[in-house]
Specification:
The protein is globular, with a radius of gyration of 22 Å. A hairpin with a 2-residue loop joins β1 and β2. It has a three-stranded antiparallel β-sheet. It folds into two domains: about 220 residues, no CATH class; about 120 residues, no CATH class. α5 runs parallel beside α7 and α5 packs parallel to α13. Helices cover about 70% and strands about 5% of the residues. With about 375 residues, it is mostly helical. The chain contains 13 helices and three strands; from the N terminus they run ααααβββααααααααα. It starts with a helix and ends with a helix. The longest helix has about 35 residues.
Length: about 375
């Protein structure tokens, strides 16, 4: 009888599912699809003669991503530790394949297109860095406290970030990759001194660069990233150039008021905000649903991050905890940077909003990461 009770208890533990995390994820996906259709329908109708063009193209990878999420929630996450190096090399190989096979858009090669299916290697690199960094931290253990061990771990992420920036010209993804590794290292090593010094150094360097750009008398022929900094400092002075998208986004946010104009009633999506379904979709959310809708979306992301934190704190082993922390860091950094860009808190860097912005590779990778977190959650208490 006692053995039977233990068997039932063990079976109940094995079938544990984190419904709160699933609900939050499904809510964000459904909300994202609704907002994507609302945001892109006008331009999609003009460009493709089908107002649901972007919606249809996002729905397919979303459904595929849900399948990947379910698969990863049952795939033993500890096996990922054995495949850390192949995954790391595979992600780097995809980046190098951009050179001969990448599709060039706006001067940058960021997608590999195979028979109509596009893959963005930078998204694959993010999950590869999470797995590889977690594995390195586990293997190095106390050696992580040494400058060499710390440098090797951070350096592995810096290499991938450097490749992303050099090959695909994607600075925002490179920043996110380094940020993910830093978050994982931060929770794995005691003491805050080195991180405080690093943060002060980065902020100081950024301030110096901004001051030099702002004081430069020659603006013609300037690097487009420097032009974005000038547009960030004074978007009105660059209203016809790099500041146009930011200004239109701010107009959308301001015109939404407290409760917004209503779903589908945005004016700025009528060609004023270029490709609003991508990194500027949050501004349309503010315009149509107002401050209330914007806060609701941010609260859902906060709940998602909080739930991931709970799973990490109760993970059955260090590797599982680090995987979830990496996922949490990825989503948190990307959400913060996207909202900061849309509100002109930082210069425009083209960062999408997780689960909501248009992008097939991104949503598949993000759902795969949620699947890993669900897998770790299923093993809590074992």
């Amino acid at each position: 009888m006692l053995d039977r009770i233990k068997a039932l208890h063990r079976e109940r533990e094995e079938s544990y599912i984190d419904y709160s995390l699933i609900f939050i994820t499904l809510f964000l996906l459904a909300f994202g699809l609704i907002m994507l259709y609302s945001t892109s329908s006008y331009e999609a109708n003009l460009d493709f003669g089908d107002s649901a063009y972007y919606f249809k193209h996002q729905l397919i990878p979303t459904l595929l991503g849900l399948g990947v999420m379910v698969f990863m929630s049952y795939f033993p996450y500890r096996i990922l530790q054995k495949f850390a190096i192949p995954v790391y090399v595979f992600a780097a190989t995809l980046l190098f394949l951009l050179i001969p096979f990448g599709k060039k858009v706006n001067g940058a090669r960021r997608w590999i297109v195979i028979k109509g299916i596009s893959i963005q290697p930078a998204e694959v690199v993010k999950v590869a860095v999470i797995i590889f960094t977690a594995t390195l931290i586990i293997q190095l253990k106390k050696n992580l406290l040494n400058p060499r061990g710390f440098g090797v771990t951070l350096g592995s992420a810096l290499i991938q970030a450097g490749l992303v920036y050099k090959i695909s010209k994607n600075l925002s993804s490179a920043i996110i990759i380094v940020g993910i590794a830093m978050v994982m290292l931060f929770v794995s090593t005691p003491g805050y001194k080195r991180y405080i010094l690093a943060a002060v150094a980065v902020l100081g360097l950024a301030a110096v660069v901004v001051i030099l750009i702002a004081s430069s008398e020659q603006t013609s022929g300037m690097n487009y990233r420097f032009e974005r900094v000038l547009a960030w400092l004074d978007p009105n002075a660059h209203a016809s150039g790099k500041g146009f998208q930011t200004l239109q986004a701010l107009y959308a946010i301001g015109s939404g008021g407290v409760f917004g104009k209503g779903l589908g009633e945005s004016m700025q999506k009528m060609g004023f905000i270029p490709e609003a379904q991508n990194d500027m979709i949050f501004s349309i959310i503010c315009e149509e649903l107002g401050l209330f809708g914007a806060i609701a979306v941010m609260l859902m992301f906060i709940l998602l991050i909080w739930r991931l934190m709970i799973i990490a704190n109760n993970a059955p082993d260090m590797f599982g905890a680090l995987l979830v922390i990496g996922v949490m860091g990825h989503i948190a950094i990307q959400v913060i940077l996207n909202i900061a860009v849309v509100t002109n808190t930082i210069p425009n860097t083209g960062i999408t909003l997780p689960f909501i912005s248009y992008g097939g590779s991104a949503v598949i990778v993000q759902l795969a990461e949620i699947g890993i977190a669900l897998n770790v959650a299923r093993n809590i208490g074992k």
